[in-house]
Amino acid sequence: MIETRLLRSFLIVAEELHFGRAADRLHLTQPPLTRQIQQLEEELGDIRLFDRSRRRIALTDAGRAFVEEAHAVLDRLDRAVAHTRSIARGEAGRLRIGFISTANYSVLPRVLKSFTERFPAVRVELHESTQNEQIDGLRDGSLDVGVLIPSVHDDSLEGTDLYREPLVAVVPRDHPLARKRGALAARSMRDEPFVLFPRALAPSLHDAILGYARRAGFSPRIGQEARQMQTIIGLVAGGLGISFVPACMQELRRSDVVYKKLTPAPPEVTTRLVWPRARRSAVLESFVVAARERRRR
Question: So what's the pLDDT on residue 295?
């Protein structure tokens, strides 16, 4: 294996074509530099890189060809070192992010914009997935970090709160409830069919919605179920029922639905950034810092 110091010394001599000047640049005396070039020639198989028969040395044909190859090797090594250092500083690498659909309407776009502007060399892979799918991915290593509404405590995971928001009602624009002024009383929806998601997809949010309805004096009659919040709102627009959704979904502006505040005060939903306690990389650290800077309460 040829040492990189021999390649660097060779390239300096090739630039100067003078051992004395090259030795000065390398902060060596001439004899050690001459021995380095001789060692390099020996390690290449006793190939002469310089013609020393004249007063001024010159590159041989083999030497001229080796200049290009030596530059390529050292350039590649320098890039590898720089890339490795960037990864160690959390400035490069890959980050696999799972997220629930509601996060795309609240804090996630701001966090991603801040992070990718600061760390453009990090390859971000986004995976829209349910809470349970994210937990599985964080445990098996297919995800590095998740953005979700947590339901149970897991000692293998740690995280930080990103966003808290209340529930709001969403009703069809032509529904009588849409014409009421001010906040809607939750009990006024007791006779309406609800459009919700299956509890298995997000137990904590599902339980918060049903618990709020029960405190208002009724148990929601679920007429339709859908996996995504966008689909739920679409079904509401189609007249299949009403729903309670996180307030961030008001960012999904549709002309065929109306979002209404609720009374009494509805519960707040917390969106949380979560990652495996045992796998905290430098890139993840950088993302957590960016997320904490851009989080909103």
Answer: 72
The reply to whether 258 and 287 lie within a common domain is no
CATH of the domain at 133: 3.40.190.10
The alpha-helical segments, DSSP class H, found in the chain are 4-16, 19-25, 30-43, 61-88, 108-118, 131-140, 203-215, 229-237, 282-294
pTM to 2 decimal places: 0.71
With a cut of 60, say whether residue 296 has pLDDT above it. no
| Residue 61: both structure tokens together | 């044909």
Would you call 263 helix, strand, or coil by DSSP?
strand
Mark whether 126 and 183 lie in a shared domain: no
Domain that holds residue 20: 4-88
**Does position 92 have pLDDT exceeding 80, yes or no?**
no
Are 149 and 207 contacting, i.e. CB atoms less than 8 angstroms apart? Answer: no
Nearest-angstrom CA–CA distance, 201 and 12:
64
Residue 198 DSSP symbol: -
**Total count of domains within the chain:** 3
DSSP string, 9-52: HHHHHHHH--HHHHHHHTT--HHHHHHHHHHHHHHTTS---EE-
pLDDT per position as a tens digit, 111-153: 999 999 988 989 999 999 988 899 999 999 999 999 998 876 7
Neighbouring residues of 270: CB distance < 8 A, sequence distance ≥ 6 = 149, 150, 161, 163, 164
Q: Are residues 53 and 26 in the same domain?
A: yes
Angle at 124 between CA 119 and CA 125, to 5 degrees: 175
CB 146 within 8 A of CB 273: yes
Q: How many CB atoms lie within 10 A of CB 49?
A: 23
Compute the distance between CA of residue 118 and CA of residue 110 in angstroms, rounded to an integer.
12
